[in-house]
Specification:
With 469 residues, the protein is an alpha+beta fold. The chain is built from seven helices and 26 strands. Strand 15 and strand 16 form a beta hairpin. The chain is globular and about 65 Å long. The structure holds 2-acetamido-2-deoxy-beta-D-glucopyranose (4 copies) and fe (ii) ion (FE2). One of its GO terms (molecular function) is acid phosphatase activity.
Amino acid sequence: MAELWCEMVVAIMGMIVLSFGRSGIAGKTSTFVRSEWPSLDIPPDNQAFAIPKGRNAPQQVHITQGDYDGKAVIISWVTTEEAGQIEVKYGTLENQYAFSAKGVVTTYTFYNYTSGYIHHCLVDGLEYDTKYYYKIGMDGSAREFWFHTPPKIDPDASYTFGIIGDLGQTYNSLSTLEHYIHSGGQTVLFVGDLSYADRYEYDDVGIRWDSWGRFIERSAAYQPWIWSAGNHEIEYMPNMGEVSPFKSYLHRFATPHVASNSTSPLWYAVRRASAHIIVLSSYSPFVKYTPQWRWLQEELRRVNRKKTPWLIILMHVPLYSSNLAHYMEGESMRAVYEDWFVHSKVDFIFAGHVHAYERSYRISNIYYNVSSGDCCPVPDTSAPVYMTVGDGGNQEGLAGRFWDPQPDYSAFREASYGHSTLEIRNRTHAFYHWNRNDNGKKVAIDSVVFHNQYWASNLQRRRLKKRNS
Ligand SMILES: *[C@@H]1O[C@H](CO)[C@@H](O)[C@H](O)[C@H]1NC(C)=O
Ligand SMILES: *[C@@H]1O[C@H](CO)[C@@H](O)[C@H](O)[C@H]1NC(C)=O
Ligand SMILES: *[C@@H]1O[C@H](CO)[C@@H](O)[C@H](O)[C@H]1NC(C)=O
Ligand SMILES: *[C@@H]1O[C@H](CO)[C@@H](O)[C@H](O)[C@H]1NC(C)=O
Ligand SMILES: [Fe+2]
């Protein structure tokens, strides 16, 4: 009976859809598969993981947003011999550091491995839209970097985000990272599964986190990476006596969770330029009444589309994916949150986990109830677009098997490595591209102009009103 219902819904949906999509609903499955390099991690002594010269030189430098509105950064780095200098010197002129901020130092053990001295330093009270130079470390081994603060929170602020997921540390990962660096992206939205160090055993787990920290520095020292955690961050390894989830991740990657009143660094929100970005944890309790659920309910109330029109959610496990890998793993979170996402008119939900690229149509499946049997997604102009960008290039390789035929909710899918960019132009328009790693080149394959879910429909309504009055 349920199956019959489902087919009827599909038939009805097909009819609705004909008058719905500009280019028709028929999703595209790109049969192109580009796997440039074997799925093997780069050897630890490779230049890609070069250790900076000098005694106790800072390494694994990365920054992230440090507050709710973009006037602060958290600068993190590792020293190996001693904690050394805990200060960051910074200023707006090269080689002249008018200010300094003191950080904190932590270490942890993982099996027999002891981490280096992990520094986290909050630098706040920054001016918007300004280039800052910063210096860490001492004497001959001091190192200098720079970053740009975002424009102030404004509905028409232009800003370009990159989206990267499931990166790892292979030659494919390096290709993705280098393409991203040349994409014009100003901040990375990282959708989980960072180093894949958990594919190693014993002391190599910690060692591969260190190599990954040096690997991403070429981008992450110069612009914020907004972090979310994936299953490869859990590192529940009782065989090695390691049973405390997210231990390496939480020690190494700070997030500004307190600024959004979150009680856990695993879920939080930041506002940047014209975007409100909500980070969720697929692997922390999220059902009704849990801390994450209560926090998300409050955070969605804090969203002000008049100030930040673009509402973006990051999570690791996709809620809609038609890849056979990890098929339906997101159903539990979808059942809890999809209704909120549709009613909040979320613009985009970015996820990783599945090692391929996929973009959905605006669809929802919020009318299902276990008695009524409405079980299929239907076109819904209020619904978010779901993007899976788990194609960073890690050692597990591509997820090349898709559900056949392509479900109606799926607009475009391809199993190649790459990353996405989201160029927000103003309150109504954003230009989105998924960029395939193609024989050493970056090629924009899936390009879409998106209209803002709050402003575009409001403008339409206003125009209609005008015409009718
Ligand atoms: C870890 O340390 C213990 C105690 O020193 C030692 O017996 C063991 O061999 C070490 N394990 C590895 C894999 O190095
Ligand atoms: C967090 O909670 C405090 C105290 O209730 C409040 O003053 C502050 O505005 C809240 N922060 C945000 C981002 O809502
Ligand atoms: C579930 O569906 C049935 C049949 O349509 C309806 O009577 C009932 O009210 C629904 N329950 C909820 C909680 O929506
Ligand atoms: C927003 O950007 C789009 C694309 O560049 C442009 O066509 C539109 O006129 C802009 N809207 C406003 C209000 O500036
Ligand atoms: Fe994953």
